[in-house]
Amino acid sequence: ISICRDLPNIEVITFSVNGISDLEPLHRCQNLSELYLRRNNITSLDELFYLKTLPRLRVLWLAENPCCGPDPHRYRMTVLRNLPSLQKLDNQAVTEEELSQALVDGVEITAPPARRSVENGWSGSTASSAAGSTTEPESELLSCSLEETNKTQEELDMKPVPRDKYSSFSPQETDCSHKKRNNVLNAILLLMKELDAEGLEIIQQTVVRRLQAFQKRELQEE
């Protein structure tokens, strides 16, 4: 997710089911208002340190990460103590009573998490997560991916992706292929929000050429 360091104006990010363990690249996204990180490999709530500098963050989905731990109350209180501007956490509205209680039951995070040694650009926790993330059930992975891709498209006033077209992978493709295509699609859609009219015209011309090339190839194969 290092690309986020170069997207200071991005407002909505959906990174669920991606094996992410490090949130440091997000600290420059000063316009970020919604962040979806469900089912990743975030092992420590100390990662919230990088989100405390985001003044507009109002929606966070962090559930189903190792950092949530066995005590849901302590987890929620700690998140709200460090991110008191949140209006919704894990798809549940934040109340004034919770924010007051968080000052008592939550743990304040004042320093970034300690990092493990990194070799070849991968930490041990990230590598193991990337290997394990490919075991997600196909139907569940597609459901999550389709939901979040459609949310991104709604932000861009685009039509949602039909399920039959979205899941039209060949039987030989793995879950990893599903995730890769979804990640690329989400990245493109989010980056489009950063472009002006001239940039969008270039994208349109490139897409037309690519589609023509695909159609020509299909005709040749027939």
From TrEMBL:
Q: Where is the composition biased (Low complexity)?
A: 121-147
Compositionally biased residues, Basic and acidic residues = 148-166
Which controlled-vocabulary keywords does the entry list?
Answer: Leucine-rich repeat, Repeat
Kindly list the biological process annotations in GO that this record carries. Answer: cytoskeleton organization
- Where is region (Disordered) located? 115-177
A Pfam family matched in the record: LRR_4
**Entry-linked SMART domains:** LRRcap (SM00446)
- Give the record's GO CC terms: ciliary basal body; photoreceptor cell cilium
The residue ranges of the U2A'/phosphoprotein 32 family A C-terminal domain are 72-90
**Cited function:** Plays a role in cilia formation and/or maintenance. Plays a role in the regulation of cell morphology and cytoskeletal organization. Involved in DNA damage repair.
Q: How does it assemble?
A: Found in a complex with CFAP410, NEK1 and SPATA7. Interacts with NEK1.
Name the record gives this protein: Cilia- and flagella-associated protein 410
Species name: Tichodroma muraria
